[in-house]
Design goal:
This protein has 650 residues and is of the alpha/beta class. Helix content is 64%, strand content 7%.
Length: 650
């Protein structure tokens, strides 16, 4: 089949502020920039360097995770962290290794569910998941900025004038992040490698110094054990409580979805070597999980043993910055300041990574569904919207790190749970019983974790619900506004259909009769042709082409239109496949005009029915009153009346 482009209305010349905002929609411009943007093959890197992009989000949680664990679990924090690590290594890691196999182009678990769930059901489910994913990414931005602010303000060398202005400094960091993306942010794996390398090295030094302090003062271990057994008399009680509180530590699971998203950046030996990319992704995910697990356990132990519980509370010096507290206490303010700077940079860059993730995620789904305005494919206006949302979320949580932890964990857990569910369905289709049972168990555990986190900290689901409601509302509104757009991304036409069109053009005017196929026998076509020749005065000797449309998936918005030529009982028929009858016919007429240089005429019969009901049928099922809808799509697509195909109704 031959691919042809459908000509729609010409692009408007853009100048001034509007032109600057929509500049990247111009031909040849990359629609997305940032750490998650698609790269040319020459810019791909080894898996361990790409892992550092995941590390911007994943490893940066060390800045606040130990403090949150201590607040949530108290003396039980190391044991609850062990439960989290077990879930990481034996739950989340196997799930995302499978996701990497199923989506080697970096679409992640959402696209797996989109393939499994049919039509509108799948798209509505994807919209809900996008709400939770947006919660994950937005809270990554705001929480990272808030924690970076905490490291700035608690540093002993910070000017006194800045202290007590957590909200102002956080908003400034968010504004700087938005400004960088408005100016144009290019993918910088090298910066990520340096930041992650320095940050992990400094954390290793801090943890080693803290463990040395523990060895030098063994009484802290004795005191901790005494406190632990006084609160929880038996190991069984400790395990039970650890299972109850570990959902509050679920921030430590972040980064897996990002790890799959960056897969296209992994260097491969030859083009199309998806197996090589998958192997690289498996190494990336496994290495990141093992490194993070080690740091989570070690940091939880040393912070619990060495930091007084009161310092973890709001206003304490370890609030939101437990490892930074140890860096200053055990290695001095100079090293502590270097650690603070490294932490601030990786947290800020984690926000940049999350922003880039949203800039990749939103254009990948919503515009394709017709559920977002076309300008959401442009970086700058989307950056402005996301920055305003980040401001609002920061104000809602008063720039507090721990208060945002619940919302962050909710987004992370729902996304990971959906991935586990998608993987369970995937292995079940392959009839692998043991794997199905294993992944089903992981899914159940993650469901429990997500529900427990929502019950304990409902702020997360409240924020996610707002995102979901907003996405669905604006998606439906956008679908209504864009309903009459020409939605075919191109026309794939076979040789028979092309020959039919060229033969009709050789006569003169091209006459196309729309037919709703029924029995498709000779009588049906003979009576339809006679009716249209009589009602619309088509000359007896003029050839006609029948057009019939098979609606594929009416929930799709932008798809290629497929056209097949077929001859039955001497009648020439163009058979179309597309998500909407009216859009398919309009796209075909424009394609015929572009192919032949002649303005085609299409002929319809009126149908009986309520126009409002017909419009709803068009929006949901792709059908409705075809004639006026086809004419409206053509009017939107071609503003020049002299070039617009003619619509006749008898």
């Amino acid at each position: 089949m031959e691919q042809m482009v459908v000509e729609a209305k010409p692009a408007e010349h853009r100048a001034g502020l509007r032109g600057w905002l929509l500049d990247d929609l111009n031909e040849g411009k990359s629609p997305v920039e940032g750490p998650h943007a698609a790269e040319e093959p020459a810019h791909r890197r080894p898996w361990w360097q790409v892992m550092c992009l995941t590390g911007l989000d994943y490893f940066s949680t060390l800045g606040y995770q130990p403090g949150i664990a201590a607040l949530a679990a108290g003396a039980l924090a190391p044991i609850a962290t062990l439960v989290l690590v077990a879930l990481t290594l034996f739950g989340a890691l196997p799930v995302y290794r499978w996701v990497a196999r199923e989506s080697p182009h970096g679409q992640g678990s959402i696209v797996m569910l989109e393939r499994v769930l049919p039509k509108w059901t799948g798209k509505l489910f994807v919209l809900a998941l996008l709400g939770f994913a947006a919660t994950d990414f937005i809270i990554t931005i705001t929480l990272s900025a808030a924690d970076a602010t905490a490291h700035i303000l608690e540093n002993p060398f910070t000017p006194q004038a800045l202290r007590g202005h957590q909200m102002v400094v956080t908003l400034v960091l968010l504004a700087l992040l938005g400004a960088v993306f408005l100016r144009g942010f290019r993918e910088a794996i090298t910066i990520a490698v340096v930041l992650v390398g320095v940050y992990l090295s400094l954390n290793l030094i801090v943890v080693a110094a803290a463990l040395q302090a523990v060895a030098a003062h063994p009484h802290v271990v004795v005191a901790w054990r005494g406190l632990l057994f006084s609160e929880y008399p038996t190991p069984l009680a400790m395990a039970a409580v650890a299972l109850l509180v570990f959902p509050k530590l679920a921030l430590g699971l972040s980064g897996f979805e990002t790890g799959v998203a960056v897969m296209p950046l992994i260097r491969i030996r030859r083009p199309g070597d998806l197996d090589g990319r998958i192997r690289g992704a498996h190494k990336l995910l496994t290495t990141a999980a093992v490194i993070m697990s080690g740091y989570l356990i070690a940091s939880s132990i040393v912070t619990t043993l060495l930091i007084p519980p009161r310092e973890f509370e709001p206003g304490g010096r370890a609030y939101g910055r437990a490892l930074a507290y140890l860096a200053h206490e055990h290695l001095g303010n100079i090293f502590g300041t270097a650690y603070d700077i490294s932490t601030v940079l990786i947290l800020w860059f984690a926000g940049a990574s999350a922003m880039a993730g949203l800039l990749n995620l939103i254009p990948q789904y919503l515009p394709r569904y017709g559920m977002a305005p076309a300008w959401t494919r442009a970086v700058r206006p989307l950056v402005l919207v996301l920055t305003i949302i980040a401001f609002a979320v920061t104000a809602f949580f008063d720039a507090d790190v721990n208060r945002q932890g619940g919302a962050y964990a909710t987004g992370v857990l729902v996304v990971i749970t959906s991935a586990a569910f998608a993987v369970t369905l995937s292995v079940r289709r392959r009839r692998w019983r043991r794997l199905t049972i294993g992944f089903a168990v992981v899914t159940v555990i993650l469901v429990y974790t997500a529900i427990a986190n929502i019950i304990q900290r409902p702020d997360g689901v409240k924020i996610a619900s707002l995102f979901i409601a907003g996405i669905i509302f604006f998606s439906v509104l956008s679908r209504l506004v864009r309903a009459m757009e020409l939605r075919a991304t191109g026309v794939e036409m076979d040789d028979v259909a092309r020959q039919f069109i060229e033969d009709a053009a050789a006569y003169g005017d091209i006459h196309v009769v729309a037919n709703e196929p029924d029995t498709r026998d000779e009588r049906e076509y003979r009576e339809k042709e006679a009716e249209q020749r009589r009602d619309n005065h088509i000359p007896d000797d003029a050839p006609v082409l029948f057009v019939e449309v098979k609606v594929t998936d009416p929930s799709d918005f932008e798809t290629p239109l497929r056209v097949y030529g077929e001859e039955r009982y001497g009648f020439r028929i163009l058979r179309l496949e597309g998500p909407s009858i009216s859009n398919a016919i309009a796209a075909l007429l424009l394609c015929i005009r572009n192919l032949t240089g002649r303005k085609p005429h299409v002929y319809f019969s009126w149908t009986e029915g309520n126009p409002v009901v017909d419009l709803l049928r068009y929006l949901v099922f792709g059908a409705g009153e075809i004639a006026p809808l086809t004419r409206e799509v053509l009017r939107e697509a071609e503003h020049d009346v002299r070039r617009r195909p003619m619509v006749h109704v008898g």
